[in-house]
C-alpha cells in the first residue's frame, strides 16, 4: 500500500511539473529589451536664448526631469551621447562626439550628473553622432529595440548626410526610426530632418516637455491592433490571409502574420511596436494594402481596414492524365498573377480574370469571381493521340478552323510519341528527316474525341 501511494504521489508530481513548466516557459519568455540612446546637442548655438534662459539649460533641465520617470523601468536601458561639447569652434572639429554614459542598468543618475556639467562649445556633426550612436548599441538581437532620440537646435555643419546614415542603420536593423526633437528651428531647417526620422518641432519649453512625454510614451507603451479584412459589404469576414507590416519610412519588413479569427469570431489582436508607422499588405491575389487615415496610437487599440472581397476559382477535369497549368491574369492586363494547377481551388479578389489554360491546344477564357462564391472552369476531357514513324520526322500539329492554328511541334528525337489533345479536328504536317526536298512533305487529318485513342502512322 505504501509503494502504491508513493507511485501515485510521483505521478501527480510529474504531471504537476509538466503542467507548470510550459506555463513558466511562456510566462518567463524574455520581454524585448528597449535601449534608448539620447543624442544631445551641446554645440555653441545652444547658448541662444529661449524663453528667458539658454536653450542648453532649459533642455538639460527638462530632459533631466523626464529621466526621473524612466528610473528603474524593467527591460529598459538608457545611454547618453553628446556632440559639440569637447572642443571649441573655431577651429571646427567634426569628430567632436562622445558616448558619455554607455548602456547599462541604473544609468539615470549618471546621465543626470553628466547633463549638469555639459557646456556648449563646438560645431554640429549630426551625421557623425548618428553613425557613432548606432554603433553604441550592444550586439543587435531579435529581442531588442534600439531607439535614438536626437535633441538638436541646428543642422549638419560638417558636410555629412544624416538622412543617409539614418537609413543605412535602419536597413541594417541596428536602430529603429529615430525621433528628432528640434529646438527653435526655422522652417527651412525642419525639412532637413524629415528624412532622418519622426520630427517634432519644439517652439517653446512647454512644447519641448510635451514632446518628450509623447516620444517616451511611444517608446514604452505597447499598442494593439486588429486588421479587418473587409468583404463587399464592408464586413470583416475575410480571414486566413498572410499579412506583412513594412516600415513605411525605410520599407523594411517588420512583421508577418497569418490573419486569424479569434474564438469570438473577431479578427485576432496583434501586438505592434508604435515607434514605427506602417504599410500593411494583405497577400491576396492580387495583393491589397491598407488605405485611409489610420494611425497607431501608443496604449490604444487600432483597427486597420483592408478591402479584400474574395471568391474561389476552381479549375477541374474528370481525367488528369497529364500535368496542366492555368495562367491567371487580371482582365486586360499582361502581368501573371498566378499559375494554378488543374483540379485545384484558389481564392482571388472579386473581379474579372483572363485565363490561359495550357492544354493542347490552349484554352483562353475570361471568368468573373464573385464574393464568397465558387467559379468553376471545367476543361473538356482530352483524347490520346499516338504518332509512330519509322524515323523521327520534322513537323507540327495544327487545329483545323478557318485557318490552321498551330498547336505543337513534333518531337524530332522520337519516332513514337503520345499527346493529349482536346476534342476537335486536327492536321499533322510532316517530312521525314532524311527527305531532301520540301516536296516530300506529307499531311494527315484526324479527329480527337474525349477519352478515346487515335493512332496515326506517319
Task: Give a quick summary of the entry.
With 458 residues, this protein is an alpha/beta fold.
Question: What would you say this structure looks like, in words?
Answer:
This protein has four domains: 33-220, 3-Layer(aba) Sandwich (Rossmann fold); 223-307, Immunoglobulin-like (Sandwich), CATH 2.60.40; 310-378, Immunoglobulin-like, CATH 2.60.40.10; 383-457, Sandwich (Immunoglobulin-like). α2 (55-68) packs antiparallel against α3, α2 runs parallel beside α7 (205-220) and α4 runs parallel beside α5. It is α/β, with parallel strands linked by helices and 458 residues long. The protein contains seven helices and 29 strands. The longest helix is centred in the N-terminal third of the chain and has 26 residues, at 2-27.
What attributes characterize this protein structure?
single chain; 458 residues; Rossmann fold; Immunoglobulin-like; 4 domains; four-stranded antiparallel beta sheet; 29 strands; 19% helix; disordered N terminus
Secondary-structure blueprint of this entry?
Elements lengths: L1 H26 L5 E9 L7 E2 L2 E2 H14 L7 E8 L13 E5 L6 H10 L8 H9 L9 E9 L9 H10 L7 E5 L3 H4 L7 E5 L2 H16 L2 E8 L11 E6 L5 E6 L11 E3 L5 E5 L5 E2 L11 E7 L2 E7 L8 E6 L7 E4 L2 E6 L1 E7 L5 E7 L4 E5 L4 E6 L4 E7 L5 E5 L6 E6 L2 E9 L9 E7 L4 E5 L1
Parallel strand pairs: 1-4, 1-6, 6-7, 7-8, 9-15, 16-22, 23-29
Antiparallel strand pairs: 2-3, 4-5, 9-12, 10-11, 10-13, 13-14, 16-19, 17-18, 17-20, 20-21, 23-26, 24-25, 24-27, 27-28
